[in-house]
Amino acid sequence: MSQAHNTDKVLIFDTTLRDGEQSPGATMTFQEKLEVADLLDEMGVDIIEAGFPIASEGDFAAVSEIARRVKRATVAGLARAGFKDIDRAGEAVRHAHNGRIHTFVATSPIHLKYQLQKSEAEVLELVTASVTRARNLIADVEWSAMDATRTPIEFLTRCVDAAIRAGATTINLPDTVGYTTPDEYCALFQAIRENVAGSDKAVFSAHCHDDLGMAAANSLAALRGGARQIECTINGIGERAGNAALEEVVMAIRTRGDVLPYITGVDPTFLTRAAKLVSAVTSFPVQYNKAIIGRNAFAHESGIHQDGMLKNASTYEIMTPASVGVSKTSLVMGKHSGSHAFKEKLKELGYELGENALVDAFKRFKDLADRKKVVYDEDIAALVDNEIVSANDRIKLVALIVVAGTMGPQSATLTLDIDGVHQTRQSTGNGPVDAIFNAIGALVPHEANLDLYQVHAVTEGTDAQAEVSVGLSRAGKSVIARGADPDTLVASARAYLAALNKLMVRDERGAKLDQMAAG
Known about the structure:
Layout: E1 8-9, E2 11-14, H1 30-43, E3 47-51, H2 57-69, E4 74-79, H3 83-93, E5 99-106, H4 109-116, H5 120-137, E6 141-146, H6 153-166, E7 170-172, H7 182-195, E8 203-207, H8 215-224, E9 229-232, H9 246-255, E10 262-263, H10 271-282, H11 303-311, H12 339-348, H13 355-371, H14 377-390, E11 395-403, E12 410-418, E13 421-429, H15 432-443, E14 449-457, E15 466-474, E16 477-485, H16 488-518
Parallel strand pairs: 1-10, 2-3, 2-9, 3-4, 4-5, 5-6, 6-7, 7-8, 8-9
Antiparallel strand pairs: 11-12, 12-13, 14-15, 15-16
């Protein structure tokens, strides 16, 4: 294997819209998927895995539309080894400027015995047949050995050999259950590339899950073993503990070129903006100490750290905030700030709103500034995220009056805009939140169960905005949504309504599918 040099390009394969969306509660709407795909393309991602086309009509429609509109990136559709899956994926990406079918089959003994119930010989036949079918539809075919890191090397070698012989142009050896370690993963790629005669005909790819907290480290170790594609997600979302985080992989390569002599095509100044968008559309908050894009990533509270930063920022920052899309300078925002300053602040935080959305957001900002002494960046981000997520909601909060205290029962009088019609209801409950949720249930009858109710302060201080997360489930499906407001009870109502709106979108998708099936 030749030694890496500075012109070694690492392809970034983003699977936020496929593996990321498989996180429980992270389902995105059609429009949200398009918005995320547009940003991924703009920031320079090489391959966008847009979805699993055979999973649903909604997934097929989203992959097809993304394939049509993406200008630079390759658009991939995932498919199991069955011909129906492969044909559906091929149909979904056929209008792409660059399309790819990504097909996979499990290879580990535990998967063969309990999931596939097939022999090694039968799996080898599946590999050849599935890749051949895909290659007959499109020139760019990726094949993945699901649970590769728990597969005997001899059998894995035969599978990879069969895939390349059948025409696979990319070979993915995923750490599907987050089991491996960096040294093991590097050695796996080295062994496969050395023992498969046609390995030079394919790009090798790493796809790591974070069950043991080593997804990014394992992905980077794969590069030493010869991989030149890394599969990852924005904010590291994904099945179980998530995937390797795109922002961590990109910035590790960019920051440590001395030991990671590679390049990517991703513009890192988009990372913060992408993180905020994905967090908003999935309602998955980014932990404060998250590497690269967390709220505290460039925050310094310790006196020793502050002293060092004042003397030279490089004493405690190995990358600049600007390099990931966070400005060092900060406009102080308050009730005397004008719309121009507000618009500039939004740009600084990575938001670009249309004129109508900007007017609405500015009005809410002014209302917030009248109620708070200091408006922090996090307050503005929470405010705008609410605007983005609720823009197309069928149910909107109009007014809320709550009576609470030691002398019960607590009550809530709630007015909602439901499909353009204002409706009001008063309800009581075991506490003000229960009263609010009862009022919502009376106005919008539903059978969803409340699985999560969580409150945290967006910033410090007694006048901080509250951010509430609400999780609802019904018929085995779950959604999570967030709402923010200086009033915790208003934030609670916003979060519950946001979750209900997500369920309604899902119901509409199901109804369309039923109509199509009946037709």
